[in-house]
């Protein structure tokens, strides 16, 4: 399998759900790095030069487009609203909780682009498990 090593990014206009108030527009960037084929990241701009980034399983995002997925800090599920279909993204940490609405079509487009680089199920062909284990166990490759 030939894998391209280009990052996949998508600029998304999300909506932060505010209890009892109007949703707040939030700019975010989704990113996929083929070198870390199981994960996707989403970064939220919180200031001029500050970004808060969350990384979670690409499979979680893919599953969440179709049905509720996730048990922990990151949960994703499909929903409908008057403007069309959306994907909800719930992020929880010790410092707080946030619920975002994402345009479903843009999430699907992003996922399709990631699968064009590393197909679903092809992640294990990209990762050198022996090298990763050596890094974890010994702090580097063993010769």
TrEMBL record:
Its main location: other. One of its GO terms (cellular component) is cell septum. This is Sporulation-specific cell division protein SsgB. It is found in: Cell septum. Involved in sporulation-specific cell division. Required for early stages of sporulation. Important in the process of growth cessation prior to sporulation-specific cell division. Recruits cell division protein FtsZ to the future septum sites and tethers the contractile ring structure (Z ring) to the cytoplasmic membrane during sporulation. Stimulates polymerization and filament length of FtsZ in vitro. Belongs to the SsgA family. It holds the Pfam family SsgA.
């Amino acid at each position: 399998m030939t894998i391209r090593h280009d990052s996949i990014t998508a600029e998304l206009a999300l909506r932060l759900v505010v209890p009892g108030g109007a949703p707040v527009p939030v700019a975010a960037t989704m990113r996929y790095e083929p070198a870390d084929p199981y994960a996707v990241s989403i970064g939220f701009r919180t200031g001029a030069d500050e970004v808060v980034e969350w990384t979670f399983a690409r499979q979680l995002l893919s599953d969440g487009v179709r049905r509720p997925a996730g048990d922990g800090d990151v949960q994703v599920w499909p929903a409908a609203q008057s403007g069309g279909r959306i994907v909800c993204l719930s992020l929880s940490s010790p410092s707080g909780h946030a619920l975002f609405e994402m345009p479903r079509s843009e999430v699907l487009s992003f996922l399709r682009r990631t699968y064009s680089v590393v197909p679903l199920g092809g992640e294990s062909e990209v990762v050198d498990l022996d090298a990763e284990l050596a890094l974890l166990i010994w702090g580097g490759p063993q010769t």
